[in-house]
Write a structure and sequence with these properties.
This protein is an alpha/beta fold. The protein is about 35% helix and about 20% strand. Strand 17 (about 430), helix 21 (about 445-450) and strand 18 form a beta-alpha-beta unit.
Length: about 625
């Protein structure tokens, strides 16, 4: 335990608050000025020159006040605005400011008139705030500042700290160069570059520590904090050009996010994943057992798509790694493509288009039919199949479906008991089955032979579901009048050359696995999947996990949460509770869910407990992963 007394010196602008107060004041005072934007930009530029040490702070202050044309009456509005702009991680860690009030100071080149009312709410009294003060004319106009105050002068923070004569270690936390120079001058022992709101290269390159938020600062110093582990230390790797909204959502929540536009090979991924906590992929990246074994810190694998066949789900489960996917987000996109292809195939649109591209005019009604009144056979009546059913019926089609599970018919759709019955009556058959290994070559020569002569087949499900050789033969023999394929048994890892036996065949629509690739679908996925990631990392929720016991947890309030993942063997739960009882822990709530291989137990406890209990829980035989949340 560190017994050295510590003094914590905070900057105000862009540290305790998200903004520069004088910039906000300019927004207020120049509200009706036609040159407002230009003046505010000039004030911002002058502010940055002063912060970076390019001009003296005195000059910076004089020039800004002259441009502001502010009045004492404006300060009330400024304070009200600043109270809404307290930095997010400062706001969430009030406990630290309350517990260490005697050790916390604010040294700012801003002004006490607006700083005091803000920091008072964080238990920092006026006598611990060192800042400038305004000078006012008789009518209240701000005409200057107290020029005798050391903080109005260049490198004033150095002199201010010297004059305070603090005993013990001095740690300075701020975003500007004027904060760093206190460390350079030797009056501060450590400088923490605070980058939650702004990152200045001149400041960060000289810092002892870079702190993206107060949580990181408190973690380094082992001080009371709102969360057990700073989110900026949790690394998320997003591959395959996942929609940028995912990056924005996850990084805004505080995580460190790296994006890579392409998929990675097994060896590349093994090298990259060692320090990664969350991996996000689409369909081209394969997460093998070797990758999982190399992932020492991995907690979550998220598929930004429907399928999870590219992930070794059992290997993830054995290592306590939760897998999420996006089973609903691109449903509409796939359905709309299916509807479009039904119409295009029935009207031979692609055939006519190809002929025109080749310079041939062939106006004919032969083989061109309306979809109204035709029979659509849907194989697989899940999220996509059932929604397709509704839209196809709206077009006037008679809808039939077959599913191995008992599914409720929507609208006027008719459920059939056998696949054979569906194939025999359908004018169009569309496949929407899952990626279960048993579905390999599910649709082959036999199934095609059972279809009506001149029927059409669409596969937007999985590439390995259809026997391509049988499909080619069905087209060449004219058993099938048209085919649309979006997925293939083998697909390249990146865009480039590709060959399929279906190339060049008449009335065959080929698309490169774009069924769910619309801007809307990718945005929806980039919203849905990060929400699942954050719910698990932040609270332990596993709702909609693909490979893991599902638990929907209540909101965690005023408690610490123990998350214990273990092999589902007899006696583990008893041992957990035996240890909790041994250390006299008061349990607020306990939740358990299991599957044949894994057990997941969550225990909410009072904040105060003997820290030895953590090691005891980690050492229970059969433990896979254990972590604490608060």
């Amino acid at each position: 335990m560190n017994l050295t007394k510590r003094n914590y010196i905070f900057d105000f602008d862009s540290t305790l608050t998200r903004v520069e107060a004088l910039d906000v004041l300019a927004e207020i005072t120049l509200k009706n000025n036609p040159k407002k934007e230009a003046i505010i930009q000039e004030i911002i530029d002058i502010t940055n020159l002063g912060i970076d040490g390019e001009i003296s702070f005195t000059e910076s202050l004089e020039r800004r006040i002259k441009l502001l044309k502010a009045n004492k009456a404006d300060l009330g509005s400024l304070v009200a605005a600043l109270k809404k702009q307290v930095s997010k991680s400062i706001e969430s860690n009030k406990e630290f400011f309350e517990e260490f009030a005697d050790d916390i100071y604010v040294i700012s080149c801003g002004f006490k008139e607006f700083i005091d009312p803000i920091v008072k709410e964080y238990n920092i009294p006026s006598e611990r705030v060192f800042a400038n003060t305004f000078e006012f004319a008789k009518d209240g106009e701000i005409i200057g500042f107290d020029a005798t105050n050391v903080l109005s002068k260049h490198n004033g923070k150095i002199q201010c700290l010297k004059d305070m004569k603090l005993q013990g270690e001095i740690q300075v936390i701020g975003d500007g160069y004027s904060d760093y120079v206190t460390r350079e001058a030797g009056v501060a022992d450590k400088f923490f570059a605070y980058t939650e709101n702004v990152s200045r290269e001149k400041t960060t390159e000289n810092a002892d520590h870079i702190t993206p938020n107060l949580d990181e600062f408190l973690y380094i110093n082992d001080l009371p904090r709102n969360i057990s582990y700073p989110k900026n230390r949790i690394k998320i790797l997003l591959l395959e050009n996942v929609h940028s909204d995912a990056f924005t959502k996850l990084s805004s929540d505080g995580f460190s996010v790296e994006t890579v536009s392409k998929s990675l090979s097994e060896s590349e991924l093994i090298e990259k994943i060692k320090d990664v906590h969350v991996l996000g992929i689409r369909s081209k990246t394969t997460v093998t057992k070797k990758v999982i074994e190399a992932a020492e810190k991995l907690m979550v694998v998220s598929a930004f798509c429907i399928g999870t066949k590219q992930i070794d789900l059992d290997a993830c489960k054995e290592k306590g790694i939760v897998v999420f996917n996006a089973p609903y987000s691109n449903t509409r996109s796939v359905v709309e493509l299916a509807i479009g292809e039904i119409i295009m195939l029935m009207r031979s649109v692609f055939q006519r288009s190809t002929e025109l591209h080749n310079g041939q005019w062939n106006k004919t009604a032969e083989g061109s039919r309306e979809v109204r009144g035709k029979k659509l056979g849907i194989v697989g009546y899940g999220n996509i199949g059932s929604q397709l059913s509704i839209l196809a019926e709206a077009l006037g089609m008679d809808v039939y479906y077959y599913d191995v599970e008992d599914k409720l018919a929507l609208g006027n759709a008719t459920k059939l008991d056998t696949l054979e019955e569906l194939l025999a009556l359908s004018d169009v058959v569309t496949l929407h089955v899952d990626d279960h290994a048993a579905n390999k070559n599910f649709f082959g020569e036999k199934e095609i032979s059972l279809m009506k002569d001149g029927a059409h087949l669409i596969n937007l499900s999985r590439g390995f579901v259809v026997d391509i050789h049988a499909l080619v033969n069905g087209i060449k023999t004219k058993k099938l009048a048209g085919v649309a394929v979006d997925v293939y048994p083998e697909e390249p890892a990146k865009n480039g050359e590709f060959y399929t036996e279906l190339k060049g065949l008449p009335n065959v629509i080929l698309t490169p696995h774009v069924g769910g690739s619309t801007e809307e679908a990718q945005r929806d996925i980039a919203d849905f999947v990060p929400n699942k990631i954050m719910a698990y990392i932040n609270s332990g929720n596993t709702v909609d996990a693909v490979n893991f016991p599902n638990i929907r947890l209540p909101r965690q309030t005023n408690a610490h949460r123990f998350l214990h993942i273990h092999k589902n063997v007899p006696g583990v739960m008893a041992k957990i509770n035996e240890i909790l009882a041994k250390y006299d822990l008061n349990i607020n709530g306990q939740y358990l869910s299991t599957d044949p291989k894994v057990g997941y137990v969550i225990t909410d406890l009072d904040k105060e407990y003997n820290k030895e209990v953590l090691e005891a829980l980690r050492n229970i035989e059969g433990t896979i992963k254990f972590r604490v949340l608060y």
